[in-house]
Design goal:
By secondary structure, the chain is α/β, with parallel strands linked by helices. It contains 16 helices and ten strands.
Length: 330
């Protein structure tokens, strides 16, 4: 099959490699001409400094990319998603199957990516939506290391279509799900705790603190799942607990890396200036903080991280506040 990939960064090219290995034809679109050129001439992913299969082609012509195939795989940072969707609209001639692999939530509206697509595209432009999410560092996928993810759609037929499209018996196992909300929430929310895990590591804390953070983070995620009506089964699956584990315990995670810098004393702006790749957890923390207020939830870790990121509370002070809360049953 033919697939158009919108966004030729680390994850866009990691997934393009899987598609190419599965003998699909891939055309990547990126706004950055340098990225397009490096893919076409040197066959490399410049963000990861890794080679990609030579049959993956790239273009900076959006019309060409949209007309190339009826499957559009979006892998752009969620911050630019609305703009990216609006830019493809004029070139859509028939309904497309949209797959999204970016992980994030819109602050203020608290919209998930599928809801943003529903707001921006008509039924004549989008025939179905599939979220692809799970514990998957691009650094490992691009090297063909074993990875498992979930393809979720409210319409099972599309979840299964995408499951088959990506499944590779050597290294990429794909599960299907019809709980789009649960899959999207897990992929987005875990980034908050990855940032927090980096902060506490930057403060010199060890594995005990990390394990406590992941466990209590899972409890806060469960409260949000409950409040929004998402399935707890998804929380316990690859895109929930699976992604939480990988992202809170691996140095590949740029959310963890950003947290590490903040934990060592850099402020948010300095940290972001020093990162070349997207750090989705920051906007997601903002979104979750206001959602938690709105739904009257008790989410102390999200609140503490929000204060560190946006209210200049010292990480050490935030930790003290967290640890000195009233005692309670688990
Ligand atoms: N890197 C990973 O391991 C990984 C794994 C799973 C999910 N994700 C998610 O995938 C998303 C993208 O992450 P990434 O690591 O690939 O980021 P990245 O920074 O490596 O790449 C983003 C790419 O998007 C391009 N871009 C920006 N605006 C665009 C637009 N309007 N149209 C087309 N291209 C545009 C940029 O030029 C860049 O090449 C994030 O939501 C991230 O959370 C990443």
């Amino acid at each position: 099959m033919k697939v158009s990939v919108i966004g030729g960064g680390s994850w866009g090219l990691g997934l393009s490699k899987v598609l190419s290995d599965n003998h699909h034809q891939v055309l990547v679109y990126d706004v950055d001409d340098k990225i397009v050129e490096k893919i076409n001439t040197l066959h490399v992913c410049i963000q990861l400094n890794e080679f990609i299969p030579e049959d993956i082609r790239a273009t900076n012509n959006l019309q060409e990319a949209v007309e190339y195939s009826d499957i559009l795989l979006f892998v752009v940072p969620t911050k630019v998603l609305r703009q990216a969707i609006h830019s493809i609209k004029p070139w859509i001639r028939q309904p497309k199957l949209i797959i999204n692999a970016a992980k994030g939530i819109e602050p203020e509206s608290f919209l998930r990516v599928s809801e943003i697509f529903e707001e921006c595209l008509t039924a004549q432009e989008m025939k179905g939506f599939v979220a692809l999410s799970g514990p998957s560092h691009a650094e490992e996928v691009i090297r063909g290391l074993v990875t498992s993810v979930t393809a979720a759609s409210d319409q099972e037929i599309y979840a299964k279509e995408v499951q088959k499209l990506f499944h590779n018996a050597h290294y990429f196992r794909v599960y299907s799900s019809t709980d789009t909300m649960g899959i999207e929430l897990g992929g987005a929310l875990k980034n908050i705790f990855a940032l927090a895990a980096g902060v506490i590591r930057g403060q010199g804390l060890g594995d005990n603190a990390s394990a406590a953070l992941m466990t209590r983070g899972l409890v806060e995620m469960a409260k949000i799942y409950d409040a929004l009506g998402a399935s707890k089964e998804s929380l316990m699956g690859l895109s929930g607990v699976g992604d939480l584990i990988v992202t809170c315990s691996s140095e590949h995670s740029r959310n963890f890396q950003a947290g590490l810098k903040i934990g060592r004393g850099k402020d948010l702006n300095e940290t972001l200036d020093s990162m070349t790749m997207v750090v989705e957890g920051i906007r997601t923390c903002e979104a979750a903080y206001y959602l938690s207020r709105d739904k009257n939830l008790d989410t102390p870790i999200i609140d503490a991280l929000f204060d560190v990121l946006f209210n200049r509370v010292e990480p050490k002070k935030a930790l003290e506040i967290l640890l000195s809360r009233a005692l309670k049953a688990e």
